[in-house]
Design brief:
With about 190 residues, the protein is an all-alpha fold. Helices cover about 55% and strands about 0% of the residues.
């Protein structure tokens, strides 16, 4: 009976540890999701598709239309928080460029030595086993950018392309007299 209680307590503390980690992560991550959005541009926050008219398959049709969107907003976590965008915003492009240049210089020096060694080995024996060149590993900021999502900036051109895609899709589904309209709402914040 004792081992079960110990295991339960460990699970209980692990659960609390995960909750505390999540809370600290949310407080650590920047709240400014529009950090890398230019002043004259707007962040795409939400896309709402409404179907008007009698249709039994409206839910399936909505999902299909949403998959056809050319421009989708950033993914959300817990239905409201743009975690992946915040993760992307944690990276600093200037710092990334500096670190990449430093690491690339080191890798170039190492590869020069490897090349000299390989040439020497080839001069001694043409069937010698050669050492492979090193490749630069990603810096932390690059990994953040890969795991995160860049901000999706609203584009009226992409909205028109989505409308065209919707019209073609609905025509192929048998809705020959379809009419598509769109509206855009801009908030004062980005």
């Amino acid at each position: 009976m004792n081992p079960i209680i110990i295991k339960y307590r460990l699970c209980k503390y692990k659960f609390l540890q995960n909750i505390l980690f999540s809370i600290s992560l949310f407080s650590f991550v920047s709240c400014n999701v529009s950090k890398y959005v230019p002043e004259d541009k707007n962040l795409l926050k939400k896309v709402n598709i409404e179907l008007i008219g009698p249709s039994q398959e409206s839910n399936f049709l909505k999902e299909d239309l949403y998959n056809l969107l050319v421009q989708k907003p950033n993914r959300k976590l817990f239905s409201n928080y743009r975690f992946y965008l915040s993760l992307y915003n944690l990276s600093n492009q200037d710092r990334i460029d500096k670190k990449v240049n430093e690491k690339q210089a080191k890798i170039d020096k190492v590869n020069e030595k490897i090349n000299l060694r390989n040439e020497f080995l080839l001069s001694l024996d043409s069937s010698a086993k050669l050492k492979n060149f090193k490749e630069r590993k990603l810096v932390f900021g690059e990994r953040l950018q890969i795991k995160g999502e860049a901000p999706v900036i609203f584009s009226s051109f992409k909205a028109v392309r989505s409308k065209d895609q919707f019209s073609k899709f609905l025509f192929n589904k048998g809705y020959f007299q379809n009419s598509i309209s769109d509206s855009t709402f801009f908030s004062k914040k980005k």
